[in-house]
């Protein structure tokens, strides 16, 4: 029979340490919905999504019951809409967002990602129109998420897109100023965007993916934190800490693999990947910052934070990679400020700054995520933040992203509150010395030597 | 299909009897039981065969959970595979 302690450990992880499956995301290709008539294309998009995902929610609920493990989010990612928009003879691209929103509501998913464009090497037909429509799309829908890939290691960084995205982020915030600038929280600007990421707001279904696929994102910062907080763990040296994180990540990921296989079998859809990410929530203790603090930091953001995060990120991958047959997506530790109780506290104390977060993004799995900045931050400063992050991603062959929220009408000392998984964020100070001349140059920042691997 | 039924809470008279008679009502066969009492906290783990369960597994799980609430204890019913996959390579 199974070991009693193992059973109790699992139950304790779920009951007390916030272990859950963060998301089951169905990726759906919309390439066969392309039509020069946008209304026809939207109809096809709605029909295909609702046909493929009609039983996504009921199946996930059955799995939750069977294994007693919560699946917090059920979501859908689709082909970057700019690819569909390129065929349409209209500039009113935002109709696609309405079709996505309607489909999401019909099948009951809380977010649908893929109102996206990939412009790392330049703009194709449809890309401009889509990017320009993003603020309106995010302001007039609740569930649609948007992302734009503006750079990659292979191509370098499209600085024209970087300039444009600074303005788009600002405009998305401005159009939703009455709702805590929520528009900007649904928009991610990527470098090296993964095509199989199940996590929002940056999920989209890449062009190289199959027609339909199931990707699963696990969670579990609370479990890792708890494992590191026992008296035995406190005596470990840092090698021992890494080993303990690996073992814990293995267990978490095995559960993700189990759920992914079951969901793919029941839905009759190919299993894609398990994303090994440690995704925090605002719940007390379910925090990546707290894990770093358990390693011995007084407050997340102090000197030593980057080193601890590097260890954590690496150990999570090493533990998880053996537990799953296919690993993908972002796979690492997330550091979204508003969604992490420990990060929020560290930012409020002033220990955690944007500059430190930027350093941390060189070793974590994503980038500057869910950071509220003063509402009067100029667009070119946001563009420059994006350029810095993209440069880190480009040179280090990793995904980086920027999801900052210019909180319109607010400044240092205020905060934005979204409730639920999005949490709340104190407005953080930004260096506003002007990078305008640099941003206005435009052009393509060349790919680094690292790109020449062939 | 095998399920693990775990019962955790303050020790009182008749826990095993109540849980096992509920299982019998629904045609769930108990294969194995282990139980311990540590500092007044009662922990029981049952391995049960639910393949002949008279009601849907989800309903059975809900029934057991509400029995737990009546008794002031926590009862979880989970498929054994979650433990196998997490704790065995």
Describe this structure in words.
Chain A has 454 residues and is α/β, with parallel strands linked by helices. Chain A has two domains: 23-191, Anaerobic Ribonucleotide-triphosphate Reductase Large Chain (Alpha-Beta Barrel), CATH 3.20.70; 220-451, Alpha-Beta Barrel (Anaerobic Ribonucleotide-triphosphate Reductase Large Chain). Helix content of chain A is 43%, strand content 18%. Chain A is built from 16 helices and 13 strands. Chain A has helices at 4-16, 38-53, 56-67, 81-85, 95-107, 127-140, 159-175, 221-228, 231-234, 238-267, 288-294, 305-321, 341-349, 354-360, 379-396, 436-441; strands at residues 21-28, 71-78, 111-118, 144-152, 156-158, 187-191, 212-218, 270-275, 368-374, 400-407, 415-419, 423-426, 444-445. In chain A, strands 1, 2, 3, 4, 5, 6, 7, 8, 9, 10 and 13 form an eleven-stranded mixed sheet that branches. Chain A has a two-stranded antiparallel sheet with strand order 11-12. Chain A starts with a helix and ends in a 9-residue tail after the last strand. The model of chain A has no long low-confidence stretch (mean pLDDT 93). With 89 residues, chain B is an alpha+beta fold. A four-stranded antiparallel sheet of chain B has the order 2-3-1-4, with helices on both faces. Chain B has one domain (2-87): 2-Layer Sandwich (Alpha-Beta Plaits), CATH 3.30.70. Chain B is built from three helices and four strands, in the order E-H-E-E-H-E-H. The interface between A and B is medium-sized, with 22 and 25 residues.
Largest sheet of chain B: 4 strands, antiparallel
Q: Measure the end-to-end span of chain A.
A: 52 Å
Assembly type of the chains comes to heterodimer
- CATH first level of chain B: Alpha Beta
* Mean model confidence by pLDDT of chain A: 93
